[in-house]
Amino acid sequence: MHFKKTENNKENLLQKIKNTPNKPGVYQFFDKENNIIYVGKAKNLNKRISSYFNKENTASGRLALLIRKISEIKYIIVGSEVDALLLENNLIKKHQPRYNVMLKDDKSYPWICLKNEPFPRVFICRNPEKDGSEYFGPYTSVRMINILLGLIKQLYPLRNCRLNLSDENIKKKKFKVCLEYHLENCLGPCQGFQNANDYEKSIYEIRQILKGNIASIVLPLKNQMDQCAKNYEFEKAQILKEKLFLLKEYQSKSTVVNPKINNIDVFSIISDEKSGFVNFLKVVNGAIIQAQTFEIIKKLDESNEDLLIHTITELRQSHKSKAAELIVPFVFDFKIPDIHFIVPKIGDKKKLLDLSLQNAKFCKIEKQKRLDFVDPDRHSKRILNQMMKDLRLKEPPEYIECFDNSNMQGDHPVAAMVIFRKAKSSKAEYRHYNVKTVSGPNDFASMEEIVFRRYKRLLDENKPLPNLVIVDGGKGQLSSALSSLSKLNLQGKIPIIGIAKRLEEIYFPGDSVPLYIEKKSETLKIIQQLRDEAHRFGITHFRKKLEKHTIKSELTEIVGIGDSTTQKLLKNFKSVKIIKEASFEELKEIIGASKAQIVIKFFQSNKNQH
User: Fold this and answer.
1) Of 278, 290, 264, which Cα lies nearest the Cα of 348?
2) What CATH number does the domain located at 557-609 have?
3) Residue 466 to residues 142, 381, 396, 443, 505: CA-CA distances in angstroms?
């Protein structure tokens, strides 16, 4: 069934869409050149197709562009939701519509092939063929395949030649054994030294290993080993014992959860505005036998549910998975017969879901790192754009200033201002302030003074103002800073926020309800770095000032010793302790005999008193 849209019959098209059946199916959108531009599935074709045209006036970006380009609509009614899912997937792969998400091509991933031939070979391939052979994979790591093939080579001597080992050729003695036979890597089926039944037993066990069913071959091997020992065939028993050891060692490295968890597929997804990252784990007997992460480029701001159900269908087809249980991060609105979706909250299955999500996150981070390496400014641009979004700013905060106060019970109040440019500290522009107009412990008044002094100077010197101001503190400190901006006629012209330490809440002017940013977000990390850097810089200045005041106070207590003499002593001896230990001659050389005598007598007198 299809409808065509022209400039004059849009209303007619909408009327026809109203008659679309309320049944599951697949719909296709065509442009005016009759190219398929989008394929979608629906539990209810009528509701789904109608929804696009209900959005036409409000849609933005690529969705609005898609709707404008629709010139024809076709739909296919199917028997069930799962039929719609499979048909949608096949049509997307066949036509690759412009506005549909696509899994990144996985043809370059390696597979393990059990060749369809007499005395099958086992080897790596990258392009599976429809030749009756069995393919296991795909594997994201060649290293993992090499480990598996290395294990198989240790356990089972197999041929690796390409000879046609038909019964007729073997009976005619067409072939001779090669070096692999003499190295005991092959048992010589080419000359009939190994029969097909024995070889097939090895292939059966290899097949079980590749499927992850290691437990199914461990017990028979153990029974066989015990029987050989009872029959005094100790060499055969030792070979079987070594096989068992290798299998159990491989199994122990693969097992991540309860071995009773059998034949389950695990899917997770994490996404941003442009892409989704889906991880797939295949678990058999508690062992992860396959793992893969895909990036999906979004086309129409698809939801995580849409992306994941599409990927599940694709991966289950490509991996030929028959698992009846799927571990997923959320409940699907779409149902698939004979498939039980599990959203675990605790236990071993939750650990598997967490592991899958961790892999998806790692893939996303790795992509960001690669892009940041190619374009160093991309990292800061991405952070600044995220900050702009999280903090409701009109432009990216490329230039940020942050303020913090320090004092000890109101004594020696100081403040610090640090600057970040493009999300990185600009230490050459840091500034210290000695609070001048405030007496006693009053952080609010101190903040008001320092903010006023800072921006009055920028205005007087006609220098650019920051894109964002941050004050360390809650509503009180923010109000004080706002008061100064108001006096300078800058309120509303400079974005300003306060960060409170207790719960890391963000306060905005005129809003009593704070904003809580996600704890691991890059926005909060940058704000915390600014706050911590301002605190560190302010404390350093405060301690130096306090130390200098303490030293000067002790020296200026000496009658007859003024500031200039104190400065000379500190410049040459560096500390009061060294001055106390200095000899008369050393002091005399710096400040003269009479003042040296005064200093010596003062410290001797204090020493005798103690």
Assistant:
1) 264
2) 1.10.150
3) 51, 17, 11, 23, 22
Instruction: Report residue 54: phi and psi, to 5°.
Output: -70, -30
- SS3 readout for 38-65: EEEEECCHHHHHHHHHHCCCCCCHHHHH
Give the burial string for 220-259 (b: 16+ CB within 10 Å, else e): ebeeebeebeeeeeeeebeebbebbeebeebbeebbbbee
The SS3 call for residue 226 is helix
If you compute the radius of gyration of the chain from its CA atoms, what whole number of angstroms results?
A: 38
- The answer to whether 435 and 413 have CB atoms below 8 angstroms apart is yes
How many Cβ atoms sit within 10 Å of the Cβ of residue 262? Answer: 16
CB proximity list for 508: less than 8 A, separation 6 or greater:
392, 497, 515
pLDDT tens string 113-154: 899 999 999 998 877 787 888 887 667 666 667 777 887 887
Bridge partner residues of 25 (DSSP)? 42, 77
pLDDT per position as a tens digit, 368-388: 777 766 666 777 888 888 899
Distance CA(352)–CA(356), nearest Å, equals 6
Say which residue the tokens 């059946």 belong to. Answer: 21
Provide the β-strand partners of residue 123: 113
Cα separation of 407 and 539, whole Å? 9
Looking at residue 103, the DSSP 8-state letter turns out to be B
Say how far apart CA 195 and CA 547 lie, in whole Å: 91
Indicate the fold that domain 2-95 takes in CATH.
Answer: GIY-YIG endonuclease (3.40.1440)
Amino acid at 316: R
CATH of domain 387-544: 3.30.420.340
The burial of 189, by beta-carbon neighbours within 10 Å (0-12 exposed, 13-18 middle, 19 or more buried), is given as: buried
The domain ranges of the chain are 2-95, 111-254, 264-371, 387-544, 557-609
| Rounded Cα–Cα distance for residues 84 and 337 (Å) | 12
Which among 185, 195, 137 is positioned nearest to 161, based on CA atoms?
Answer: 185
Q: What is the pLDDT of residues 80-94, one digit of tens each?
A: 676 677 677 777 877
In this structure, which topology does domain 264-371 adopt according to CATH? Alpha-Beta Plaits (3.30.70)
User: What string of DSSP letters covers 343-390?
Assistant: ---SHHHHHHHHHHHHHHHHHHHHHHHHHHHH-HHHHHHHHHHHHHHH
For residue 8, what pLDDT is reported?
46
Average pLDDT score, the chain = 80
Residue type for position 472 = D
Q: Is the pLDDT of residue 400 over 90?
A: yes
pLDDT tens, residue by residue, 477-489: 899 999 999 999 9
Contact 441, 409 (CB under 8 A): yes
Backbone angles phi, psi at 42, to 5 degrees: -155, 140
How far is the C-alpha of 56 from the C-alpha of 52, rounded, in Å?
6
Which structure tokens are listed for 161? 């030649």
Summarize the confidence of residues 271-280 as an average pLDDT.
84
Task: Quote the DSSP letter at residue 172.
Answer: T
Please provide the DSSP assignment of 414-458 as one string: EEEEEEEETTEE-GGG-EEEE--S--SS-HHHHHHHHHHHHHHHH
Query: From CA 93, how far away is CA 579, in angstroms rounded?
Result: 85
Count the neighbouring beta carbons within 10 Å of the beta carbon of residue 129.
Answer: 10
DSSP letter for 288, please. E
